[in-house]
Design goal:
alpha/beta; 3-stranded antiparallel β-sheet; binds pyridoxal-5'-phosphate; Aspartate Aminotransferase, domain 2
Length: about 400
Amino acid sequence: MRKVYLDHGATTPVDPEVAHVIYRYMVDEFGNPSSVHQFGRAARKAVEKAREQVADLIGAADPSEIVFTSGGTEADNLAIKGVARAYRKKGNHIITSAVEHHAVLHTCEYLEEKEGFKVTYLPVDGSGMVDPEDVAQAITDQTVLVTIMFANNEVGTIQPIAEIARIAKEKGVLVHTDAVQAVGQVPVDVERLGVDLLSLSGHKIYGPKGVGALYVRKGTRLEPTMHGGAHEKHRRAGTEGVPGIVGLGTAAQLRKDHLDEYTEHLIVLRDRLIDGILDGIPDVKLNGHPTKRLPNNVNVSIAYAEGESMLLNMDLEGIAASSGSACTSGSLEPSHVLVAMGLSHELAHGSLRMTLGKDNTEEDIDYVLEVLPRIVERLRKMSPIAPAQREEKVSNV
Ligand SMILES: *Cc1c(COP(=O)(O)O)cnc(C)c1O
């Protein structure tokens, strides 16, 4: 059976080149970067090279602005808790959006419940977009941080981060963006964006799991969340995860070298898949922004078909996709992102996310376009709410 992996938003395979580097830094160059002997110095050199590679990918002026973490989740936690606590005397207000990843949302909720912060969760429009004007309106003299994601992990909508950052800067407020989904897929440049903090993750860019990085603009104060040694210039204690870090560095280098061709490849496949689904299946709605969306993201709501049932049936035919985010699927709650975008619970439950990657081909897409309409038709035949007459378009879709 054909195997088609369309869940790169959940995780990507490790690039073989990256895997080789990781092996080397596990088996041969195993030193502790803090040791002064030659084993330690070799590891230190590799970590600092990786720091340069990551800085280079996101246009950071100085590699020392990169802090290695255990992943995107830790980078988000460090950015939000780190800034909130360091600037507590200035104020206690944070601005975020309703469609953030749980690494951001739950961190904000924690600060609200346990540490007396006030959080504004900005709404989004039907395409999942935050209005920069809402950010301007929400800022008070108590605001210490605006944290809005660069691109949404479920629907792929790309936010107007540069404009949001400009507004926040004018009022002297720091800006963080969770760019885990965007980095390596579209150009991300911290200088051009004007953000102060930015999160990224290894396993979303063909690097290993369990490693990520937080960009922290020079001069930004940050209260560490992890206490111990003086690692990462007192911003994140713990012996550096050298294999993961060199893996992340190599992955960053590869993404930078191949960015244009990668983006182009993804857009061709994405649009072929979107057009094929909209043409081949009646009563389907594309979720997210039609143009300001990630090159690899396809998210559709299929009326009268249940997301989890579609996933199971697709899996039986060798196709791996997801409904909502990996963290959301498996629970009965509809995706908070789709709900915030105004979708009915029915349509939110009938949503399917397919996220493409560098190894996908046109044949993969054509296979999905052959299999999916059949599955949908079968499920709709069993659905008690699907109208028998399929010719008529449903008005609320
Ligand atoms: C995957 C993801 C994260 C979490 O990153 P991990 O490295 O898995 O902890 C955070 N934010 C977004 C938008 C993501 O897609």
